[in-house]
Amino acid sequence: MVKISRNAPCPCGSGKKYKKCCLNKDVDERKSSNDFSSDFREALNDQEFNSLEEAQRMASAVSQARNNRPIEAFHDISPDQMRQLFYFTYESPDVVTFSEPKTDIDYVPLLKLVRMLVAGIGEKGVKATAKGNLPRNLCRDIALNYWGEKNYDEVTGYRKINSEMDFFDLHVASLVAKMAGLIRKYKGKYVRTKKCEQLLSDEKQGELYLLIFTIFTSKFNWGYWDGYEEMPIIQKSFAFSLYLLSRYGSDWKNHQVYCEYSLKAFPTVLEEIEEVPWETSENQYKNCFALRTFERFAIFLGLAKMDDSSQNKIMKKDYQIKKLPLLDEVLHFHLRTLH
């Protein structure tokens, strides 16, 4: 058997490097084949079959048992449950369900920005800029209300807000609001939709949050404008990441612990990351995972918090993370029988 170099053109003819194309598939298939053969031999135990159908039934039973067996790297989740969490997150109620929060969630950054945005647009709407963005004065008003006067003066002292792109969190909120069908452009103006009007009351706040949560995890691209490679596995595994945070996040933990958990669960992701001289593929993944999963998702949606005393160490990638009660109020994992 000829060994194919990781950087050689993939023999499948895709035009990509082997490491970027079929390498992971080949490795997974060999590992799966070896594991299955071992399990099947153990199940046979000198057993004889009267027909091919009987042997096939045994093989199916062995395969099903393997898929239902908890895996240490998945923290006691079975391969079948991981598949559901990964590919069918919102269609697997036997694994995870989602509920509208009933407690006060006014503190949630993304929810707060969306509500400020739709309030600023008002019933009559606001005129979009020539580039189709939110008007400058609206962005500044929202920033002042969101940050408070002291923080606003500090931020704008070295970075003026001339458009929504200068206030990235608001830009993200506007994108999510559009994807959620809360606002739209009509005749050169941003206006609120009927759907938005129905969700503006405090009684509907939980429903609004769950809508924003769903859109943010399923439609908004987490890799938008962060400079890292695509690494879609980080967003696709959001439910698994929240499962880890739900299970271990009652106490403060260094965020690198969760980065290690994720990398151990999905080690082949490193094969998809382009190597650079100044940073290993492993560090690229961990830094990207922390940015997208914690700073721009879990914290942004009020599911976790960062240790205030370590916020100034973000650039050093050293801070503590802990779940907030909202996480267990919104997500319900039905996996406890495996612990």
The portion of residues assigned to helices is: 40-55%
Q: Spans of 5+ residues with little confidence (pLDDT < 50)?
A: 29-34
**What class, by secondary structure content?**
mainly alpha
User: Termini separation (Å)?
Assistant: 42 Å
Spatial shape? globular
Largest sheet: 3 strands, antiparallel
What are the main properties of this structure?
single chain; 339 residues; mainly alpha; 3-stranded antiparallel beta sheet; 47% helix
Descriptive report:
This protein is mainly alpha-helical. Helices cover 47% and strands 7% of the residues. The longest helix has 22 residues, at 23-44. The radius of gyration is 24 Å and the shape is globular. The model is unreliable at 29-34 (pLDDT under 50).
Strand and helix map with partners:
Layout: H1 23-44, H2 52-67, H3 79-87, E1 96-98, H4 109-121, E2 126-127, H5 136-147, H6 149-156, H7 168-179, E3 183-186, E4 189-192, H8 194-198, H9 205-218, H10 233-236, H11 238-248, E5 253-254, H12 255-265, H13 281-298, E6 304-306, E7 320-323, H14 325-330, E8 331-333
Helix pairs in contact: 1-2, 4-5, 4-7, 5-6, 12-13
Task: Provide a short characterization of the protein structure.
By secondary structure, the protein is mainly α. The protein has helices at 23-44, 52-67, 79-87, 109-121, 136-147, 149-156, 168-179, 194-198, 205-218, 233-236, 238-248, 255-265, 281-298, 325-330, and strands spanning 96-98, 126-127, 183-186, 189-192, 253-254, 304-306, 320-323, 331-333.
